[in-house]
Amino acid sequence: MNEQYLSPAPLVSPIEQTPSVSQPKADGPLAQKPKFSLALIIGIVLFLLVAGGVVGFYVFKPQLMSLISKPTPTPSPAEVLMKVSTPTPDPTANWETYTNKYYGISLKYPKSFIVKDELLSLWGTLTLQENITVTNNGKSGNPYKITIYLRDARGYDKYVNFLASPEAAEEKRPITINGISGFELKSNGHRVILLPYHVNDIPDMGGLLIESQYMPQEDDLFNQIIQTFKFTN
Questions:
Q1: Is the N end or the C end of the chain the one with fewer CB atoms within 10 Å?
Q2: How many CA atoms, within 13 angstroms, populate the side-chain half-sphere of residue 90?
């Protein structure tokens, strides 16, 4: 019998297996997703505020610059001069002037008036009368007239007592002309001013009585003439 030789089986080296390492399971806080910290949140808020302010500044910068750089309008020298030095026109600037040196009286009157001077004594008169030929273009009418009477002390006091009585005066008010105080009244359609006026060389002088017919349309003219009175004695 033939003997069969069986070749021996090759030796197989055992495969070395690397033992698997099991990953540890994360437990506790590490297993949770990280959260934003308080400092980070505050930082973001501050950043947004600063960024918003910067953006707002550049957006509104033209308006701000226009308000800051807009110059205050400066009035021209002519405007300043007009406001400061423009005087009120004097309606009596071109009037005529009457002067009585003996009694120390001067006044102004319109060029269209006629003056009748009879101040020759303590019972004298000075009349300023409108020239209707000039003012009314030759038409007839009642001229406006102002009469100034000089009165001695007795005659002046008589007028004062009569015109100052309640039954004689419709309206009465104090008045001062060139530093002399008297009173003005309206009586019987007339406008009357009484001023105590004394001249050193005339001891018996009592005062002035200024009278005109009461015409409302002539009130301004009457007041303008009265305010030109000057007393030099």
A1: N
A2: 11
